[in-house]
Specification:
- The protein contains 17 helices and ten strands.
- Mean pLDDT is 76; it is low at 79-86 and 251-258.
- A hairpin with a 5-residue loop joins strand 1 and strand 2 (113-117).
- The strands form three sheets. The chain has a five-stranded mixed sheet with strand order 5-6-7-8-9, with helices on both faces. Strands 3-4-10 form a three-stranded mixed sheet, covered by helices on one side. Strands 1-2 form a two-stranded antiparallel sheet.
- It is an alpha/beta fold.
- It is flat, with a radius of gyration of 43 Å.
- It has a domain at 359-544: Trna Endonuclease, Chain: A, domain 1 (3-Layer(aba) Sandwich), CATH 3.40.1350.
Length: 546
């Protein structure tokens, strides 16, 4: 039986528009691929995306265009009457399980055709009527509205939390920038002071007793004034609130010009606060003199003198106008808090933990990773050729720690006696030092890359063999067993043929193998990696011996 179906030219046109948008988006990755290639990053993903865009343009879109043209032609021709008979779209391979609605065809005198469908089955009509009469209760309606409200509240809460988090990050970033500027400025100024005021520092060191005495005197007098100021502030505020008549009653004379109430309390408290400010100023001056004395005795350097001295002078000046009183109280309170409390407050105020990395940089050619490593043998870079007396009495090199002078001399003695003494002492010594530094240098670079790429210990393990997971006995510096990814980190730019053969076996077993080099590999090395299906990139680096 012929089945009539509806063709929507607009629907096909919509599909074509989506395909065109997808193709254009994928083709937009072309510039990103060029940049990635210039940086030495693998472009496999970019190539696949651009290949899909090409297939959409050359294969898929022409087919869609053909069907769109046909759909529009059918839409233009599907008219009856004088314009001709209705042109149905025939399903040449109908689904035998699909019921075709029964209808009758009646020919019209004008040449058209009227299609008439019979009534729906009784059970379908009853189901439609039941759906029509079905009504949701008021409780269900309120339940739906409550769900809408709670969803809106949840979304609002998430937005507020996200916005607050972003704002806090902005504040802490600004604080970190100011902190960095302060550290740099005080370091420069402190270095200048240490270099140019050495004579003054010596003089202070010789008269440090005088500075300590003056510091103690200022603090004693200052704290006395602080106590007096506190008493006067409270007392004069109370008396001032009572007004001039009350003052006269207290002191035995009339003071009619002093206002009562809040104005009188403020006037009385103002005088007491001035005394309080002078007291805290003297305390700050005493603390400043102690800082100067510490610098004179060599307990602190110029940078600490600038940091601590600036703080004390700022508190001294601001105490005179009342602002620094609060700061001085907080400073003294903080010093007498339990150590655990002080540590908690310091951690709370820090933007991030102290940076203990032994490397710096992002790994680009303009900003290479500069990392440090230890090589004890570097201490013997200028060691003169040993004499017979130096070598006599030495045991085998295995008796000494690698990189020690005894180990080096014992290896030199073995080198001379095993028939391979083709190098001079200087050549052999430099080679020995270089060999002793290879492993610590590689380990240090591996640590730098591990921290730079921020591998998560929950997903990645270090120095792991994949033998149990793959059957191939191969150890990688970083491994993700679940996702079958192995990362080989090399501080140089060469590869091991034996390792490469195992790598290719793993790639054929659907493993992803990645190499990270410390410098640009040769074209031949790159070709071998590409042929083996291995991803690679360069983290430009510079090694510094500690």
């Amino acid at each position: 039986m012929t089945r009539i179906v509806e063709i929507s030219a607009e629907g096909v046109a919509g599909v074509r528009a989506d395909l065109v948008a997808t193709r254009d988006a994928l083709e937009g990755l072309g510039p990103l691929r060029s940049r990635a290639s210039a940086l030495g990053v693998s472009t496999t993903g970019f190539d696949e995306a651009l290949g899909i865009a090409d297939r959409l343009n050359t294969t898929v879109l022409p087919v869609v265009d053909t069907h769109l043209t046909r759909a529009r032609t059918l839409a233009d021709l599907r008219y009856g009457g004088t314009l001709g008979p209705v042109i149905p779209v025939v399903d040449d391979d109908p689904d035998p399980l699909t019921q075709v609605p029964a209808y009758t065809q009646t020919a019209l005198a004008t040449g058209g055709t009227v299609l008439t469908w019979g009534p729906e089955p009784a059970e379908d009509q009853e189901a439609d009527q039941a759906d029509t009469e079905k009504s949701q209760g008021i409780g269900g309606w309120f339940s739906d509205r409550w769900d809408d409200v709670t969803d809106a509240v949840d979304e609002g809460t998430d937005w507020v939390a996200s916005t607050a988090s972003d704002a806090w990050e902005s504040v802490t970033d600004a604080g970190a920038a100011i902190s960095d500027w302060w550290e740099s400025t005080t370091a420069d100024l402190g270095g200048w002071i240490d270099q140019n005021l050495a004579g003054l520092r010596d003089w202070i060191g010789e008269h440090v007793g005088l500075f300590r005495f003056l510091a103690s005197a200022c603090r004693v007098i200052g704290w006395i004034l602080v106590v007096v100021g506190l008493i006067l502030t409270v007392a004069l505020a109370i008396i001032g609130a009572m007004g001039g008549a009350a003052i006269g009653a207290v002191f035995g004379f009339g003071v009619g010009a002093v206002p009562g109430g809040a104005a009188g309390a403020a006037a009385g408290a103002a005088f007491g606060l001035k005394i309080l400010g002078v007291g805290f100023t003297l305390v700050s001056v005493g603390d400043f003199l102690d800082v100067v004395a510490d610098w004179g005795e060599g307990k602190i350097d110029g940078q600490d003198l600038v940091k601590q001295g600036t703080l004390e002078l700022a508190l001294a000046i601001t105490s005179l106008i009342g602002v620094g009183i609060v700061g001085k109280i907080l400073q003294k309170t903080f010093k007498h808090l339990p150590a655990s409390w002080r540590s908690w407050l310091e951690d709370l105020l820090k933007k991030k933990p102290q940076d203990n990395r032994t490397w710096r940089g992002s790994g680009t050619a303009d900003d290479p990773v500069v990392f440090e490593y230890s090589n004890p043998a570097e201490a013997f870079r200028t060691r003169a050729e040993p004499t017979r007396a130096d070598l006599d009495g030495l045991g085998p090199h295995t008796d000494y720690p690698a990189g020690s002078e005894e180990h080096m001399l014992a290896r030199w003695q073995l080198y001379q006696t095993n028939g391979s003494n083709r190098l001079t002492w200087e050549q052999w010594r430099d080679q020995y030092i270089r060999n002793q530094g290879n492993k610590p240098r590689g380990d240090a670079f591996e640590n730098a890359v591990y921290e730079l790429d921020e591998y998560s210990p929950d997903e990645w393990t270090r120095n792991t063999s994949v033998k149990d997971a793959s059957g191939v006995d191969r150890n990688y510096d970083v491994v993700n067993i679940e996702d079958q990814i192995g990362v080989e980190i090399k501080s140089g730019n060469t590869i091991d043929p034996a390792q490469l053969a195992k790598d290719q076996t793993l790639v054929n077993a659907n493993w992803t193998i990645r190499y990270v080099f410390g410098s640009q590999p040769s074209a031949a090395t790159i070709r071998k990696l590409d042929e083996a299906g291995i991803e690679w990139r360069v983290v430009h680096s510079e090694a510094v011996v500690r």
